[in-house]
Design goal:
Blueprint: E1 2-3, E2 15-17, E3 28-31, E4 36-42, E5 45-51, H1 57-74, H2 82-87, E6 100-102, H3 105-120, H4 130-133, H5 148-155, E7 163-166, E8 169-172, H6 185-199, E9 204-209, E10 212-217, E11 225-230, E12 239-245, E13 249-254, E14 259-262, E15 265-268, E16 283-290, H7 293-316, E17 322-327, E18 332-334, H8 338-341, E19 344-345
Helix pairs in contact: 1-6, 6-7
Amino acid sequence: MKIKHSMSILFLALCLAGCSVQKSQPKTHSVSEDFIRSTDFKLNTVVTITIYDSQDQTLLEDCMKLCDKYEAIFSRTKKGSELYQLNHRELPLICGKQDTYAVSEELGDLISIGLDYAKRTDGAFDIAIAPLTDLWNFTSVTPKVPAQKDLDNALSKCGFQNVRIDGSNIAFTSPDTTLDLGGIAKGYIADQIKEYLLSKDIQSAVISLGGNIVCIGCKPDGTPFKIGIQKPFADRNETAAVMDIRNKSVVSSGIYERFFEKDKTLYHHILNPADGYPYKNDLIAVTIISDKSVDGDALSTACFALGYKKGMEYVNKLKDVQAVFITEDYELHYTENFHENIPLLAN
């Protein structure tokens, strides 16, 4: 289904899927009769937790602590994190098994999810591309395109086929293979925060981890949350579409999130493990609406990698998943039965 929108500016008090990273974002706390909210810069993005049916500030504090806990496990770049130690082969080897390491239940769980999506998408989503992502520094003041010889060398070390998992035991068939869980870690963490809040009887809240939005229930008055899909390359308050969301995750991936321009060419952060360069296809962004945010994370990247036609075909086969594809002509394309499941506001 294809629907063209006028891309008008819409200023609303809502959460935007696909928010840009703002490292200067201050730590803030807000309290009113209607909600409590905490905002901080964590996980290399702006994290905002809003709770509507409780005034218990310790819940917000605990949610931020969960972010810190999982960053200490999943961070690829933070020295001393469990993933850092795994990638640098600093964890103890399992006795009698070559290049096999025991990891925590959480890390094993996330690696298992990542490998499952890599297999299901034939490598369109791949967690074993850390040697490649290490070459591209999109946050540098002076980013540059890696040399071809360096890309070729990195690509020879990539591939999910080089990773085996058995419970919490991780085995590498190549000594050069390292993992990058950035494509699914925020979704997993958002899901864990949701489970924590549900265990505390919270029934109305919004969890925002940058481009990952998780809505718990709806507003206390029974109305849905209004979640905007950010208009690509525009101010973060400009939306391409606004959706009514109840108890769902909304995740966006797009070329506007992290990029730089060199010699009139735009280089973005969604890298093709086939050639080492950013994907060049007909897409600007993909938004996934699903029950779990970790699924939305993987699917938004995978569907972007597949391109509009194949990505649409893939997600249309999935149960309880909806998607919005924004093509390079700025048109919005919706999955089958999208409008029967996700109401849209006029934009």
